[in-house]
Amino acid sequence: MAEILVLVDHADGAVRKPTLELLTLARRLGEPAAVFLGKGAEGATETLGRYGAQKVYVVDAPEVDEYLVAPAVDALAQIAGGGAPGAILVASSNDGREIAARVAVRLESGLITDAVDVEAGPEGPVTEQSVFAATYQVKAHVTKGTPIITVKPNAATPEEAPATPTVEAVTVDFTASATGTKVVSRAPREKSDRPELTEADIVVSGGRGVNGAENFHVIESVADALGAAVGASRAAVDAGWYPHSHQVGQTGTQVSPQLYVAVGISGAIQHRAGMQTSKTIVAINKDEDAPIFDLVDYGVVGDLFKVMPQLEAEINKRK
Amino acid sequence: MKIVVCVKYVPDATGDRGFNDDGTTDRESVDSLLSELDEYAIEQALKIVESGVEAEITYLTVGPDDAKDALRKALAMGGDNAIHVNDDDIAGTDALGTSLILAKAIEDAGFDLVVCGMASTDASMGVVPAMLAERLGVPQVTYLDEITVEGAGKGGGVVKGRREGDVATELIEASLPAVVSVTDRTGEARYPSFKGIMAAKKKTVVSKDLDDLGIESDEVGLSAAWSVVDTATKRPPRAKGEVVEDEGEGGVQLAAFLAAKKFI
Ligand SMILES: Cc1cc2nc3c(=O)[nH]c(=O)nc-3n(C[C@H](O)[C@H](O)[C@H](O)COP(=O)(O)OP(=O)(O)OC[C@H]3O[C@@H](n4cnc5c(N)ncnc54)[C@H](O)[C@@H]3O)c2cc1C
Ligand SMILES: Cc1cc2nc3c(=O)[nH]c(=O)nc-3n(C[C@H](O)[C@H](O)[C@H](O)COP(=O)(O)OP(=O)(O)OC[C@H]3O[C@@H](n4cnc5c(N)ncnc54)[C@H](O)[C@@H]3O)c2cc1C
Fold first, then answer.
1. Which chain B residues in 130-189 lie under 8 Å from chain A, judged by CB atoms?
2. Ligand with an atom nearest the CA of residue A292
3. Within a domain: residue B25?
4. For A142, A261, B203, B214, which has the most beta carbons within 10 A of its beta carbon?
């Protein structure tokens, strides 16, 4: 069986959930092999093995932390070039898509981004994409080179398949381009106890209707009652009511949770592009003609400042 | 110095977009326009010049005949001239092919800085800027919320920027030549003025075909694409669920729905 390379997305060795999803999908296509870049591989190997990695390639070099994208391209391209992988899977984050893109150019291989599903097919992996703000489902496959596929978070449910991976330390010959873009400073985002937006099963988002940073606690308390992540529309973010890292939509984070709750959000096409693939959609809006209601499984026409506190109380009562 | 701004001509996102039978984008049934996210790239290029950097701004698009409209709109906002790569054999090109054509055209024009949008508003892959950096062999400085160019001229200069990375806010920099992409948080783009629209009519738009760029017709286009669309199916619109008016019990009713769905 061909190796399926999975680029590991991690924070200092803590493997993120999308990587476990990739390992799960990789098992459908061949033998999963994880590519771990940076520090913390010892701790991560157990997790990667638990989700089916037969092998872990480790590149522990300062370049990967100090420079953007290009060192990862060198590493991944070199590892892929050393074998004949059946596919390369990368999580669809900004960095992930760019790494995949450059590896595709370097290996002269086809690239498919933002897959929401991947299956084995007669001519290699067949992907499913959700395009044009989720109005179309597209099935595609790569026809040349090694299929390089970026996969959106929540495309699969991580399934354990315990293995004891062999670990191979790889020394990468970095190209001149690896050190072209210097990270001068890095301010890690404040950690919250809430789940990460891309990984959360439930997202509660607030929009312009929330009408002020001081009111966002209305969104946060319901999110906390549900164990959800907090999102925001661009209007709320632009107004400075909530950090940009929480923006949901075309130019923010694209989410696909089990449940999306849109509060005081009208449902502009650019917002829909980031949440329309959610399994269940619920909205609260005082305007019965708001386009968001076209998408909902359940909607409440009403004032969010009345509905949300009542919802929170009722959730806590039922728990 | 020379700034090349890549601008894409895309089907209007508010229209009813779809596909042709061969899996290519249907460009007939929906009006197209300059990708909104590229307006931010244009604005930043103009701002760089307004900040005192001496530069010539060239717009570049790869697209069909009417993609010229995107170039005209860009020129009406400001800048100097434009290049339109247009060839029947380009139809159906994927991201790898598009980046090849753009890279050849950029090399042909000469450049110190390439400015792109963060993603197109149609396919929104967000990969072309990185592919251009790879093909041109220069640093990529992408997803910038803020951008400045310092010490430009005579082959020197650095580009600096701030980006919201996947887990941290980063300040990054690279020496020129480089490829950058900018987000929609870099600041609103200007509207073309009447004067700008009139001036744009006098600016040159050079047309190039694959031959001019030394690209063989079998290197790009649908038949040469590195990936193919097997099927494109319109999703049935989401079945609209129940919408209730809040008459004092809206929160309780919603909680009941969530409980029935096992979210509580
Ligand atoms: C290139 C581009 C990219 C974009 N990217 C994104 C993106 O990534 N994400 C994004 O969200 N947007 C994006 N936008 C912006 C988008 O077009 C909309 O402007 C934005 O989504 C509107 O946010 P909103 O729904 O919060 O605000 P509005 O459209 O103003 O809607 C506010 C809603 O709140 C309701 N409301 C007001 N008060 C109350 C109350 N007390 N109780 C209940 N309801 C109330 C109103 O009825 C209204 O429906 C983008 C736009 C462009 C051009
Ligand atoms: C729905 C859909 C899905 C697609 N999926 C795939 C896929 O999975 N794999 C694949 O290889 N191709 C795919 N394509 C084709 C791909 O979109 C085009 O080749 C395209 O030109 C490059 O990708 P993008 O528009 O997403 O660029 P992005 O990377 O999103 O664009 C970023 C920036 O690059 C510049 N740019 C991009 N294209 C041009 C251009 N033609 N002229 C000038 N500047 C440009 C602009 O500055 C733009 O803001 C898809 C197309 C569609 C319509």
1. 130-131, 133-135, 137-143, 160, 164-175, 178, 183-185
2. 1
3. yes
4. A261
pLDDT in tens, B190-239: 999 999 999 999 999 999 999 999 999 889 988 888 999 999 999 888 88
pLDDT tens per residue across span B90-113 = 998 999 999 999 999 999 999 999
Q: Which two tokens stand for residue A275?
A: 């949440």
Contacts of A176 (CB under 8 A, 6+ apart): none
Is the CB of residue A264 below 6 angstroms from any atom belonging to ligand 1? Answer: yes
Q: Which domains, and CATH codes, for chain A?
A: 3-179 (3.40.50.620), 202-318 (3.40.50.1220)
The response to whether A255 counts as a known ligand-binding position is no
Q: Which of residues 202-241 of B touch A (CB under 8 A)?
A: 225-235, 237-238, 240-241
**How much is the pLDDT for A44?**
97
A104: chain B residues, CB-CB within 8 Å? 96, 131, 226
Q: Is A284 annotated as a binding residue?
A: no
Strands B56-62 and B2-6: parallel
Instruction: Verify whether the Cβ–Cβ distance A111 to B250 is below 8 Å.
Output: no
Q: Would you say A264 is a known binding-site residue?
A: yes
Is the CB of residue B117 less than 8 Å from the CB of residue B74?
Answer: no
The answer to whether A136 faces chain B, any CB pair under 8 Å, is yes
**Residue B217 exposure: Cα atoms within 13 Å on the Cβ side:** 7
**Mean pLDDT of the region B243-257:** 97
Please check if A83 is assigned to a binding site: no
Count of domains for chain B: 1
Does the beta-carbon distance from A245 to B225 stay under 8 Å? no
Helix (H) or strand (E) holding B120: none
| Sequence-separated (6 or more) residues with CB below 8 Å from residue B122 | A132, B8, B10, B11, B13, B17, B25, B35
What CATH number is attached to the domain comprising B96? 3.40.50.620
Separation of A126 CA from ligand 2 center, angstroms?
A: 20
Q: What is the token pair recorded at B90?
A: 């380009």
Closest C-alpha residue for ligand 1 atom 51: A270
**Interatomic CA distance for residues B107 and B92, integer angstroms:** 23
Chain B contacts of A135, Cβ < 8 Å?
Answer: 17, 234-235
Determine the Cα–Cα distance for residues A163 and A161; give it in Å rounded to an integer. 6
Classify residue B235: in a domain, yes or no. no
Full domain range(s) for residue B83: 2-224
Using one digit for the tens of pLDDT, what is the confidence trace for A229-275?
999 999 999 999 999 999 999 999 999 999 999 999 999 999 999 99
Q: Which residue has the tokens 């940073």?
A: A213
The closest-lying atom of ligand 1 relative to the alpha carbon of residue B36 is: 1
Q: Where is average pLDDT lowest: A77-91, B65-79, B109-123, B151-165?
A: B151-165
The answer for A 248-277 residues in CB contact with B (under 8 A) is 250-251, 258-259, 269-270, 273, 276
